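Troubleshooting log. The previous structure file for this entry was overwritten by mistake, so regenerating from the original sequence record. Sequence copied from the archived sheet and checked twice against the printout by T.R.
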Amino acid sequence: MFKYCSRVVVKGQRLRREKRVDRLPQWFVCTTTTIRDGNPQFSLLAIECMIEVLVSERIDPIYMNLKNLIMEEARTRVMQKQMVQGFDYTKLTLENLWNLLDY
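Regenerated output below.
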């Protein structure tokens, strides 16, 4: 069920009228929380959702906007020496993928 719901949320972004967002939406923050979850099945599904957002930039402008926000968060964190809210979502994802290799 989680798998299908998460895919609907990600793919449903194409139906938004407003393609420009100023900050990452709450559903994306929930997805990253799920990546950190202890349940490997849910973590892998959430990682799939993040990958879908990152590779779909040519499908719809909303995905390009979301990808830019994700990258900006990482840059902000690096530039400010981790003293601001910036969060490196791609690093989190790769670390969890590495930890889930045995699974």
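DSSP finds five helices and no strands in the chain. Archived copy saved in two places this time.
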